[in-house]
Amino acid sequence: MGNTEGRTVKRKNDYNNYTIMLVGKMGAGKSSLGNFLLKREHFHAADDLGRVTDKNMSESTSLPGGITLKVIDTPGFGDFRESAEVKKDLADAFYEAKDGVDAFIFVISAAERIGREMVNHFEMFQQFIDHEHFFDYVIPVFTKVDQKLQKKGERDIHSYEKQERLIHSELENEQLKIFTDSIIKRSKQKWMCISNGCKDQFYYEIITRRLLQTIEGIRIERHGMVCTSNIMNKAKDLSEFEKEKNRKAEEEEIKRFVVGLLIHILINGMQQEEFNEMFGDDQERQRKNKEKEKEKEMSKEGTNASKGPVKPVTPGAATGNAKDVIIRLK
Fold it and tell me: 0.85 exceeded by the pTM?
């Protein structure tokens, strides 16, 4: 890949800590999968075109054996916001994974058509990560498999064996050859499937056990190295993005003002004094402001002069009687 910005680093004696990052198309079930793994509603799941992932970007849960699983959600592929804003959210996600990622969970909805568009989105994400061994860390996970089994009239739709057989037969379909060659084969066939909505504890244990076993396989293959990315460096121009965004907002504000002014002129006309007040030369405006300040000062001085001089009180006057004080004041 040439000049690779991504890198791998050795995990420090925390082999019981696992960090996974959920990536995938909007509506594929990323956030629902995250909530399933956490066994609680933490991520906001939505199927609309709005911003799904917000401040609750990561959360951890404890698994048997003293294991901690950290789940990080990301903006969905197909997010129609400005690309710089999406990059900012991805940078925030990688900040949550500053110690490295054990696996990228590529979430794919089995209930939707899988085609070239999905491959394109994923390859864009790969380019953004820009890591030589990126696919070594990818685990494709098919969600909503139970929905597909239900449509086929199958019973026991939460049987993992049935779900696995269904996905396996789907992947052998010639129409999915591009997807299979681009994603499944390059990630070395380490895919999984899941029913996000299943609440059965036994099913949950099967999924988490298989997920951890797959991640352990990645760790062995990569000699304990986790995947990191200099994505924060890619996002260093985000401050420039914010400046550009503010500049555009100011331009829009000026445009609205000018349009309102033109409408005012067309309807009511404008006196020369009004025009000069708004658009006159800065030096002329400053001169007028100084004149106004001088007039105010003179006005204050005149007011004070009309009251007459204040007669000073003789020291010690307060110690005499009232009559002595009056005489002294005179």
Answer: no
